[in-house]
């Protein structure tokens, strides 16, 4: 059902206002459901402590998501599977909700970057992959590579830690540069659609600001690998 909802709004080359509105209605509803689940778990943990086996579940989910990310990266690289890859890439952003819920269920805290990123990336992929896919493949491949490494790290592959700052920075810089270039190239042209690139540029720039903030905080505080709840998105 979720997959059908996503594919029904795939980019057809034009922007039908009614379809966009219907799709955004679905997006808002799923966000409200996620926030409700998050608040319910937060309330439970605040009063009763961490949920038993939540950390084990999050550990297993990290390895599953890491493997899925690498498979998805290969699929994205195949032009013959573009529509499927775009739909699955968008769907993967809903899977990341499990990470937030699992971390909180295990007693971890959800910081600003972690919360903002997971709340907004489904909208970024909806606008820049489902509705308007121009130039989507490069950033999506870098993003799935980063997530594959990152979730393997959260699953216990500590040796990957140094690579995460590199892949995390590269994906954002490349994404921002690409959106800025496409936005600039289309400005002033009556038949060109520019708002998806403006949305992408705004969100990716916000992620970069939060990302740099987190990197500086980790370095300053010398947070140990097992102590940080910050996700290196």
Automatic annotation (TrEMBL):
Keywords: Fatty acid biosynthesis, Fatty acid metabolism, Lipid biosynthesis, Lipid metabolism, Membrane, Transferase, Transmembrane, Transmembrane helix. It is a multi-pass membrane protein. This is Very-long-chain 3-oxoacyl-CoA synthase. One of its GO terms (cellular component) is membrane. GO terms for biological process: fatty acid biosynthetic process. It holds the Pfam family ELO. Its main location: membrane. The chain crosses the membrane at residues 20-38, 59-78, 193-212. It comes from the Eukaryota. GO terms for molecular function: fatty acid elongase activity. The keyword Cell inner membrane does not apply. It is found in: Membrane.
